[in-house]
Amino acid sequence: xxxxxxxxxxxxxxxxxxxxxxxxxxxxxxxxxxxxxxxxxxxxxxxxxxxxxxxxxxxxxxxxxxxxxxxxxxxxxxxxxxxxxxxxxxxxxxxxxxxxxxxxxxxxxxxxxxxxxxxxxxxxxxxxxxxxxxxxxxxxxxxxxxxxxxxxxxxxxxxxxxxxxxxxxxxxxxxxxxxxxxxxxxxxxxxxxxxxxxxxxxxxxxxxxxxxxxxxxxxxxxxxxxxxxxxxxxxxxxxxxxxxxxxxxxxxxxxxxxxxxxxxxxxxxxxxxxxxxxxxxxxxxxxxxxxxxxxxxxxxxxxxxxxxxxxxxx
Length: 314
Description:
This protein is mainly α. The protein has a domain at 31-225. The chain is 74% helix and 0% strand. The protein has 13 helices and no strands. The chain has helices at 4-10, 12-23, 49-57, 64-95, 100-127, 135-174, 180-222, 231-237, 239-246, 251-258, 263-277, 280-293, 298-307. Helix 4 packs across helix 9 (239-246). The longest helix is centred in the middle third of the chain and has 43 residues, at 180-222. The two termini are 25 Å apart.
């Protein structure tokens, strides 16, 4: 078994990359703009970490460590997406309109990337499931449904923001003396706008329900991934986002639900991974939290003893 210092060197690149990938959202306002701290990837983008991994591996199994990172990245992306959508929905309900450029970027870049990443991670596994759909497959389908529902919403918003004013201006300029073909055209256009305005509220409510159902299923799915050493650490690092996404006052409620009623197990998993990555202060903090929940925990006491005299990295 490698010593802590050796493990730190052997995993240093991964650890640094992980923190670069996840720490960005601590300063993000989650407003739907550039949700993920990566090269923009829409349909015409150059692809991202998961797509690159797929090409480099040429269909071979992705290494477990890479897959653990990719899984956590998908979870965090969904959490941020739900928050971003909620903020845009609140803006619509307050002002009666949505910001199309912001919605367009959210759907075509962030949601599209999330959908593709879910397909990459979960679709093949679900196809191999012979006893019905599994939580991963259901989450994949849920995210795909959210994306396509938001595509419809985006088109309706475009009609209302871009074409409705144009149609109105044309109708005013033509008046009663407009040619018959122009009146027929504008009448058809007005029907499109009325339909978009009528359907938009129900479509937004439907997308909100899809996000809520996907979040509920995500919590079920996470119970199958407690062996992912990055999971608890990611949840704790981004506790404010997790609380906002799942409507919680305390992130321990989420950790407890995922770790079978044992939040101490989640904090212990986080402490182990912080220790392995050389983040000693965080490792100590999580070990202390374990002892608050389970004072007799042997491993947490061992971690604290091991950290005595260490130079702490925060």
